[in-house]
Design goal:
Number of domains: 2
Oligomer: single chain
Distance between the termini: 56 Å
Radius of gyration: 19 Å
Order of helices and strands: EEEHHHEHEHHHHEEHHHH
Largest sheet: 5 strands, mixed
Number of strands: 7
Structural class: alpha/beta
CATH class of the largest domain: Alpha Beta
Helix content: 40-55%
Length: 258
Amino acid sequence: MQLNLQRPLIVFDIETTGLNITQDHIIELSYVKVYPDGRETEKRYLINPGVPIPPESTEVHKITDAMVAGQPSFKDLAHQIAQDFANCDIAGFNSNHFDIPMLTEEMNKAGVDFDPSRVNFIDVQTIYHKKEKRDLEAACLFYCGHPMENHHSSMADAKTTLEVLKAQVEKYDDLENNVAALAKFSRYNRNVDLAGRIIYDDNGVEVFNFGKYKGKPVKEVLAKDPGYYGWIMNGDFAANTKQVLSRIRLASAPLTQK
């Protein structure tokens, strides 16, 4: 089936040196770009992380140091990737929790503006887990009727994710064929930042979702304990979390000055 799109949809997947969003690096990025008229284009980037790839990571995605030797760094490719993603909505598998935060972090390190608040995100894994609670391989078999090939190849993962998304929309009558609706359904928490360190409570108030101030309104915490802002800004938190916190702090400046 054809997805109902208002603008292009990037369905992407990454492979990395590890799972630490603030310290690890992207070594492969592949995507399928789907246009409103149904056309599809593909692109794959192999990236030199500038550090050795841990053997345990290579065991998963099969990408070795020799394969990335001589390839461009993420900084070299950042502007091109940002251009590829510009004016597109974004989809992936577990992308809200890993791929998007990792991509945003790499963009920040490269000095490239990449604001995730401007687009809709569809997390195909979240739709799947809410409906069936399995992984991508099982999703492919369940929705598409065939086993997945070349698992942990980023292009295979991206293509399978797109195939599963189309099948999900076709299977569930209550799943609206609309990017904004699919993005909303893909969310478990009402995250303010990508990592879910700050979320909206039931009243739409931005609250911390971790630590000693968990459940407390961010504006109130910043007013009562200004040092907490500095602790987060100097800590091992994702760049997007720091950006969101700074935006909230700036918006509540009169309150924090009391």
